[in-house]
Amino acid sequence: MKRSGSELLKSINLRPFVESLIAILVGFIIGAIVLIAFGYNPFEAYYWLFHGALGSTYGIASTLKYATPIMLTALTFAIGTRTGIFNIGAESSFYFGAIAAVIFTNIWDNMVFGLVMGMLFGALWALPPAVLKVYRGVHEVISTIMLNWIGWFFVLWLIIGPYANPNDPNKTIRIPVDARLPEIGYGLSIAIVIAIVAAVLTYFLLWHTTTGFGMRASGMNQKAARYAGMNPKMAVMLSFLIGGLLSGLGGAMKIMGEGPGYAISQGGANIYGFGFDGIGVALVGRNHPLGIILSAIFFGMLRAGTALMQVRAQVPLEIIKVIQGIIVITVAIPSLYDLVKKALRRGAA
Amino acid sequence: MERTPIIEMKGIVKVYPDGTKALKGVDLTVYEGEILGLLGENGAGKTTLMKTLFGMLHPTSGKILIRGKEVQFKSPSDAIAQGIGMVHQHFTLVEVFDALHNIILGMEGHGLFSKIDVDKAKERLQKLMDDLNFKVPLETPVEDLPVGVQQRIEILKMLYRDVDVLILDEPTAVLTPVEVEELFRVLRQLKEEGKTIIFISHKLNEVMDLTDRVTVIRKGEVVGTVNTSEATPQLLARMMVGRDVVLRIEKPPKEPGEPILRVENLKVRGDRGEVAVNGLSFDVRAGEIFGIAGVEGNGQTELIEAISGLRKVEEGKIYLQGKDITGKGPRELYDLGMAHVPEDRTHMGLILDMTVTENSLLGLHWRPDFQYVKGVINWNKAREHARSLIEQFDISAPGTEAPVKALSGGNQQKLIVAREVSKEPVFIIAAQPTRGVDVASTEYIRNYLVKLRNEGKAVLLVSADLDEVIQLSDRMGIIYEGEFMGVVKPEEVSTEEIGMMMGGIRYEEIRK
Description:
heterodimer; A: 74% helix; B: 6-stranded mixed β-sheet; 33% helix
């Protein structure tokens, strides 16, 4: 048994983790150069960034709050990648999750019902690209981009039209009090716990079940998967639907768990962009559910630290976005790790 | 007679970036106007050595001299400029282009608007073909031509570039016996014309037949060079593998039992809708190896895929132990006692990026032995399983959690065979079981197939390696355009007769 234990240890590959860490470091260094170029003090800026994100209970709560939706949309992207599809439909599934939560909790003010309906509608919106992909071979990038737009305008109409709040024209009708997610404190709801559980379940599904084995096998080699008695079509279908469920959950929790409004803002400002941010989170998290938990929290940190960085170090939000972008790009350079390793080795010799 | 060396390679060392030492100081001399055989197992370093000579790889250390002058090739075009040409194992033709355009490709002029002088090129090419009595159709798209002709185009491509030295990497791997004869005729003629030829192979008979001298390479080192006239196949085999190889398989006579697999009037279509398998009927009995020989592309792939549930059956029936399995999927078939060593090891048999453990679980993953509860994989059991496969089949692998792509071709194939056998089948399909596999693993796998037969399993062997089919089969069917030209016992027919059947002549007509 001991032998199997040590082999198990060996099987945990730390390389992706180290690679992402290096990418983050490089991102910060390049970011510092950008900051200097624009006349800011990078040490001061980074100090306030981290102070804002982790320096107080409120900061930590904000970090986790920001981490929640992107954790779920990142899972959608990752589960797609693992099954060999480039699913960028998380964005619109997120809208549908949000609007479904608003609609259905106002029919029956039950929290679980709201979450389930959010998930269902997220999955429902993932169904067309799934069917088109499996039965007609339509490339998912095309179909999901189209459906993102269709979904966006449809949901926008619902927000402005039937579900606008007659007493507050800047918002939709609110989630009823009984259906809201309980708060942990400092504006943080149990959504983060649910998101982390979802990530762990996704990990379990992909790596510890026969279904997940089939999904990953199909993602790497459809022919071999079919030969091994698996069903690649089913794998693709499941990948879209589970992805839709996760993003739908993200959308529902965004509205059900974030006070004081508990409503979608007019123009959809508080539900827009999370699907796209999730792609970056998934990349930094190496498309691994457990990596995504960490990477989402890291992105949450960047977001939460922004306020103090803006106020105390006077760094505009745009620069922070630049740093985030640089980190995503550095992670996307696969050989960066080797380059850094070689440079270090040369330096040591 | 004092001969002039045209190529001298001295102390060539090649270390790949991952640390693999492919060549460990190789010396090689090639004389002008000879046919030199370069013999070695898969992975011995033959191709690496020749790619170094052709400028595709750069030696880590060592010298290359052409006609006594040291050269350093940056790319194949440098080598071609020095008169060295290479025909690769995998062709480098643009399939939709015709031969003419393939041959002049890269010589069309490199200005943005330079004009391709097709007529002049064609004229020159025609003259070249006439001089050598070596013809290919110039204006048919390459994809519509047989492999043998495509290979000739590759050779012509090099000759058109005025090379003096022609390197051929395993040129016969894809050819029929008749095409091999034709190729040898051409090569001998090229030798008459004063060309020098380096012939890479691992087939002893071919090397014996064609070459003047043979240099044997083993594990990145030269074992020795002998004049072919003084060599015997046994001697070369010993040099190649470093021990005596059992070139014949021990196969005790055995009375076959009940039919396990029965195929009735099977019709299957290929990818392009053509009839690939045309009304085949045969059975494979318990304790029997039924071999299917034939030139590749005559319906073998479609036949296997139909039997193993991967391709739709157009007409006809397939029975396994009397049970109709027509149209059933792979999973059901495995449960009914089928196993399948697929012909495409890297695209079907394995998932290269997955670990050894994961790969050894493919097709077994739904079995309760490997699950805690239904649907949840017990990776400890799976690892144990992988470990036992590695031990039983003597697979050399860095560990159960290493990606399977880290294994050599031979070990990958052994892993597939091991996994398939662990399904405890009654019927096993072995498609190209030893293609691209080193001699030691080949021997192991072949003996294992015989062992399965001796244990009373039914084995369907499909192979492009005719020797393999002849040696292993109890009965063999020779397939041509989706039909059997004959079903015979290997010991009752001559190789020549088999060759004729592979070329499309029916057994009855031959024996008339």
